Amino acid sequence: MATVSVTTATAVSASQPLALNELAHAVGADTAWVVQLVEVGIVQVTAAEAPPEHWQFSSTDLQCALEARRLERDFGVGLDAAALILDLQHEVRRLKAVLQVHGLR
Amino acid sequence: MEFKDYYSALGIDRTASDDEVRKAYRKLARKYHPDVSKEPDAEKRMRDINEANDVLRDKEKRAAYDALADRVARGGSPEGDFQPPPGWDAGFEFHRGPRQGPADHADFSEFFSSLFGEAERRGAARQNYRARGEDHHAAIEIALEDALNGAEREITLRAQTVDAHGHPQWENRTLSVKIPPGVHPGQFIRLAGQGMPGHGGEAAGDLYLEVRIAPHKLYRVEERDIYMTLPVTPTEAALGAQVHVPTPGGGVVEVTVPRHARSGMKLRLKGRGLKGKTPGDLYLLIEIALPPADSDATRKAYEQLAQAASSFNPRQHLGV
């Protein structure tokens, strides 16, 4: 089995964000679909008034976009419903993490 | 390689309509969704039903799979030793464009990728399709210490490559990944060019690894904050004390436990959580540990404490 050494590992973060076309490519969508995510608030851009090619996206945005894409593909939900499902999903995860912190899970 | 029965994975007959496939998938996907499922093997079941759904909801793939299942039933492959017959997919064509959602195939079985992964690629090649390779997604679980300090970890993934004759093939690839210091759970590490090979000479896609933090015997992580239970004696809690505390980044710090500390009280060590633009904090959850009354001296000390604090009633709020 060949071991491939990777020298170009970067963490998607505030200092190394994803551009609009990179986020779209990562989730197998086109950029117009990502613009819709911004409109319904599934992903957040810090400067929404800037031209889309200057938008920057974080790891959280990539996570939300991936989940929205799967919800849309697998369950046929609209993006407004996906936004609500994702909010509830994140709240459940947050609460589970709090339970775990207090040793209750 | 094992022959996969996609119909039984979704609990449906071969005669199921598209609508029945969709309904069966959605029902099971809800049952095994990792956020709601209590089943111990939910993650594996979810992968299996996603794979079955990927094939059965697609007319071209389903027809080719049915034809292959017929051939297998007639010819009979030994149990658990299935190899697709040469040219099994002759007459079928699979399409996968860049707009079909995340390429989840890296999670799918060897059975799936040996059949459809290569066939999709050949389909694309026949159409002279040119595009950058799809990005792939996977998860990497690392120790908390590695998240704080950075580390080099090896992961093994099934990846598609193209041989010298332009034929796609799948191989198990071991990647040595340098994890930058300061990553947090849910963050993605991006490995340029380690996704699917490009189509028609275009560049390969990237690989995104989602960071997960392995359970730790002392610390628990919530976003960028780290929590630890700090046991203290009743004396330390009542009178206050300086105690030594190990920090996740290594080293020991001295912490002041305030007087009248209670169980469940949180002490915050600012900026000692996971790094980032806004670094997380380390929280110490006070837990009062009682010395065992297992000697005459400790029993006597407890009795003296009871006498000295005879007016203290911990059940006052219960009205008794």
What does the secondary structure layout of this molecule look like, with pairings?
The complex is a heterodimer of chains A (about 100) and B (about 325).
Chain A: E1 3-5, E2 9-11, H1 20-26, H2 31-40, H3 59-75, H4 79-101
Helix pairs in contact in A: 1-2, 3-4
Chain B: H1 6-10, H2 18-31, H3 42-56, H4 59-75, H5 110-126, E1 136-142, H6 144-149, E2 151-162, E3 168-179, E4 188-191, E5 207-213, E6 219-222, E7 225-232, H7 234-239, E8 241-246, E9 252-257, E10 266-269, E11 282-288, H8 296-308
Parallel strand pairs in B: 1-5, 7-11
Antiparallel strand pairs in B: 2-3, 4-5, 6-7, 8-9, 10-11
Q: Which fold name corresponds to the CATH topology of chain A? A: Multidrug-efflux Transporter Regulator, Chain: A, Domain 2
Largest interface: A-B, 42 and 54 residues
Order of helices and strands of chain B: HHHHHEHEEEEEEHEEEEH
CATH topology of the domain at 220-308 in chain B: HSP40/DNAj peptide-binding domain
- Under the CATH scheme, the architecture of the domain at 220-308 in chain B is Sandwich
Which band does the percent of strand residues of chain B land in? 15-25%
> What general form of chain B does the structure show?
elongated
Q: First CA to last CA of chain A: what distance?
A: 40 Å
- Output mean pLDDT of chain A: 89
Helix content of chain B: 25-40%
Q: State the helix count of chain A.
A: 4
The SSE order of chain A reads: EEHHHH
Instruction: Estimate the mean pLDDT confidence of chain B.
Output: 85
Q: Based on helices, strands and strand pairing, what is the structural class of chain B? A: alpha+beta
Class per helix and strand makeup of chain A: mainly alpha
CATH class of chain A: Mainly Alpha
The description of the largest β-sheet of chain B is: 4 strands, mixed
